[in-house]
Amino acid sequence: MLPRLHFAHLPTPIEELPRLTQALGGPRLFVKRDDQTGLAFGGNKTRKLEFLVAEAQARGARTLVSAGAAQSNHCRQTAAAAARYGFECVLVLTGGPPEQASANLLLDHLFGARIVWVADRADRERVLQETFEQARADGERPYLVPYGGSSPTGALGYVFAMEEFLRQDVAADWIVFASSSGGTQAGLVLGARVFGCSGKVLGISIDEPQHALQAHVAELASETSERLGERIQFSPGDVLVNDDYCAPGYGVLTDLEREAVQLFAKYEGLLLDPVYTGRAAGGMIDLIRRGFFEPGETVLFWHTGGTPGLFAGRYASIVVEQN
Question: Among all residues, which ones are annotated catalytic?
Answer without folding.
Answer: 72
